Amino acid sequence: MKKLVNGVGDVVPQMLAGFALANPGIVVLGDGVAVRADSDQLKERGQVALVSGGGAGHEPAHAGYVGPGMLTAAVAGDVFSSPSADAVLTAIRAVGGPAGVLLIVKNYTGDRLNFGLAAEIARGEGIPVELVVVADDAALEDSDENAGRRGLAGTVLVHKIAGAAAESGKPLSEVADQARAAAASVATVGVALSGCTVPAAGKSGLDLGPDEIEWGLGIHGEPGVGRGKLPTADEVVDRLLKQLIADRDLSAGDRVVLLVNNLGGTPAMELGIVARRAAVVLAEREIQLERMWVGTFLTALEMAGCSLSVAKVDDQLLALLDAPSETMAWPAAHLGRVSAVTEAPKPQAETPAPATAVDEQLWRSVVAVCNALTAAETQLTELDQLVGDGDLGISLARGARAVLAEKDQYDGTDDATTLRGIAGTVRRTVGGTSGPLYAALILRAATARAAGKPWPEAFSAGVDAIAELGGAKVGDRTMLDALVPAAAALRTGVLAEAVAAARKGTDETAGILARRGRSSYLGDRALGTVDPGAEAVVIWLNALDNQLTTAKA
């Protein structure tokens, strides 16, 4: 287990202390209770107080939603453990005035019992208390065989709607009614790509294979309703939305809001992909997506995965969702509004000039190079993961496939014209530093060929272009450690000697401290591993030599 924690028993109080330091609008009372700093003024003006909470580990829920327009107080138990009734009672007493307190509780046995008991005690003390249970888990059916639907990320929408109602001055009964309406309108279903580790346990309780996905799980690292092979992101979204649409009985013309929630360890990039597909699917069903929020709202520690929450809305609920709020975790009021739903156009290749067929001898050499880089994708990726960012093999293979696919777009009037077309493909499809560097090599070689220079001189000119553009030199642990000696050998010898020179230069990079590229950040940790860019040069030069040797035979 690797976590940025001190003692296991210090996790919750130290977390809340950090939140309070970053947000002067909340105060930590101890026992896991965080309240609005102005809660006394709220009692004086007769505003209904909202209290929610549960086990820690779901951050930013629930302390992240304490503030104007949402919660008045949040109560955190130990990680994935309900807070005690006494802790909940502390929160109720701190914020509860004559206007009363609404408790918003996720449907877990421990939460219901402890919040329910605290409510009974508070009522006995004369504090009006209402309790709303959120059970938005569409993966489960209410049944005598289970504890019922769990409370998931849809709870955050209930916080927002009830919080806006309370902020507007509505009495406790009306705030509770709004909360119940919101809870009844929302459904959530989630998936996990990994488990999560409770600090006190030291290991994950959910063991997923590298190609497995867990369907319909809760927010405590427990198994879901099923497990299967990991499909594409679009297929995941399609399945989740099909379930949510059926659960909410949605049809064309219905108005909904959508919460795309990170369960803890999912990159924003992947959430964006999920959000895009979800919006498209709803548009195809002619379901009107009024608002969509994408981010980290209610988590299960570091679990990789996401949940989708859909709520059917009318003008009244939408107005409450749009009402201003000031918390650490809920987006500003203007965010969430959905633009027109269209699929992004795929990048188009540059319009080619009228083409003469490419010279077949040149093209056979191009094919040999491209096939070699495609075959070496895994090898170069694994090598680059050791000393770089791991994208070299993927990038070069993607460029190689694109070059082969665009043969008919290249003008074969002469070698130089063909090379310029290939350079255009490379700069458009090969990412990172390799794309512009290889494009520069090919363009400079094309210029040399147009001037009547033989291939060895054209190659040498291309190598010079890489050095000029990238600013590196031999000894900096880059592709130039293979290219420069290869170019020198090719001027005086045959291609096989150039391959051997590139191989020697590449092997020597294993003993060089990098001064360029991602490897330069690793210091001596890169020693013992050859430079991936130089290794790629050896691979395609060797393929070119084999092809030309075969052609001469």
How is this structure best described in words?
There is one protein chain. The chain has 553 residues and is of the alpha/beta class. The protein contains 18 helices and 12 strands. The strands form 2 sheets. A 6-stranded mixed sheet has the order 1-2-4-3-5-6, sandwiched between helices. It has a 6-stranded mixed sheet with strand order 9-8-7-12-10-11. β5 (101-106), α4 and β6 form a beta-alpha-beta unit. α10 runs antiparallel to α12 (392-405). The longest helix is centred in the last third of the chain and has 21 residues, at 532-552. The radius of gyration is 31 Å and the shape is elongated. The two termini are 60 Å apart. The relative contact order is 0.07.
Secondary structure layout:
Blueprint: H1 11-22, E1 26-30, E2 33-36, H2 39-44, E3 49-56, E4 73-79, H3 85-95, E5 101-106, H4 109-124, E6 129-134, H5 154-167, H6 172-185, E7 186-192, E8 212-215, E9 226-229, H7 233-248, E10 255-262, H8 268-284, E11 288-295, E12 305-312, H9 315-322, H10 360-375, H11 377-387, H12 392-405, H13 415-429, H14 434-450, H15 455-470, H16 480-492, H17 495-508, H18 532-552
